[in-house]
Amino acid sequence: MIHLIPLIFGAAVLVLAVRRLRHYQLKERYTLAFVLLGLPFFLLAVWPSLIGRVAAYLKIDYQTVSLLCVLAFFLLMIIELLTIVSQQDRKIDTLAQIVGIMMEKHGMTDRPPAQAERGEASTKSEQT
Where residue 98 falls among pLDDT bands split at 50, 70, 90? Predict the structure, then answer.
């Protein structure tokens, strides 16, 4: 009975990811990440004694190996999500810079006209 929990969780993650992909709400890269996140749950559901065998092979306590597996799982998930956030942040910065350059090129600045005139006047006085 207890082995059904990871099987249900893994299946739910897989179905959710594929469903979001089909409705274009999730990119392929993120779908692959979710499938890989659900894979350990399927593995534990199919082979529930895997952690016990790893613990016996490494001669480490079962609870310690379980804790290390959970820790590794969460660290990998956090690293993947932070990578995605970092890439999106760089894209947003680049887009903001492009918009700023285009606004400056077309004379559409955020500054009030008085500040723009003062800036031009100080530039002209410096040139003389």
Answer: very high
10: Cβ contacts below 8 Å, ≥ 6 apart: 38, 39, 40, 41, 42, 45
The 3-state DSSP class for residue 68 equals helix
Question: Has residue 127 got a pLDDT over 90?
Answer: no
Are 58 and 41 in contact by the 8 Å Cβ rule? The answer is: no
Whether 17 contacts 34, CB under 8 Å: yes
The span from the CA of 113 to the CA of 115, in Å, is: 5
Cα separation, 41 vs 29, whole angstroms:
20
pLDDT reading at 17 higher than 80: no
> Quick check: 12 and 37 in contact, CB under 8 A?
no
Q: How far apart are CA 41 and CA 77, in angstroms?
A: 14
Structure-block tokens of residue 71: 């820790």
Indicate if the pLDDT at residue 26 is higher than 70.
no
Residue 44: CB atoms within 10 Å? 19
pLDDT of residue 118: 59
